[in-house]
Amino acid sequence: MITVLLVDDEPMVCAHLRTILGAADDVEVVGEAHDGAAGVEAVVRYRPHVVLMDLRMPGVDGLAAIERVAALRSPPVVVALTTFDADEYVVRALRAGAAGFLLKSTPPEDLVKLVRVAADGHTVLSAAATTRLLGTAGARADGRARTRDLLGGLTGRETEVLGCLGEGLSNAQIAGRLHLSEATVKGHVSRLLDKLGCANRTQAGLLARDAGLR
């Protein structure tokens, strides 16, 4: 059973999401909160697998809440809820530790599928959205040297895989490009995430762009 926590300042949005997710046999909405501070408290209380977090809320907003959740021991997967798909605020959320984002206009038939994807540890971003977001997220030149120093601990193959993550490629696409098995790619991704201290492949992709990898 995939447990989900809803965090949105609009109760009607939570009610809508609860209705859709509640219809799935393998998903349970365990709680909801209506501001970021209460959302973090609810994460500690319910220990959900997935958190759907609105980004714009009064008081403690979703971005600050994502940062606090990411700092917890064994944090859940956090997926940002947003109205706009190419927003600098979304990029900041991904840097803070969100595993991806969902548009509030996501069709009901897709919502449960995407929650399952998130629970399995995969990034919740369409290929088009990944390319668009990563393409606007490069660091300034004065930050690239610091980022490249961080990448110095990677092997040559891990650096190649990281560059592919910077393009928003899936494991299958990386395997095809580098002539590797998907299992091998998965291993490289896991190790480079650990070395870089990244919470997920989206953060690693942003780091690749920061370093100027293409």
Automatic annotation (TrEMBL):
GO molecular function, one term: DNA binding
Ranges where the HTH luxR-type domain occurs: 147-212
Keyword Transcription regulation: yes
InterPro entries registered for this protein in UniProt: CheY-like_superfamily, NreC/VraR/RcsB-like_REC, Sig_transdc_resp-reg_C-effctor, Sig_transdc_resp-reg_receiver, Tscrpt_reg_LuxR_C, WalR-like
Domain Response regulatory: 3-119
Organism domain of life: Bacteria
Record's keyword terms, sorted: DNA-binding, Phosphoprotein, Transcription, Transcription regulation
Any one GO biological process: regulation of DNA-templated transcription
Name by which UniProt lists this protein: Response regulator transcription factor
SMART domains per UniProt: HTH_LUXR (SM00421), REC (SM00448)
One Pfam assignment: Response_reg
Residues carrying 4-aspartylphosphate: D54
Membrane spanning residue stretches: none
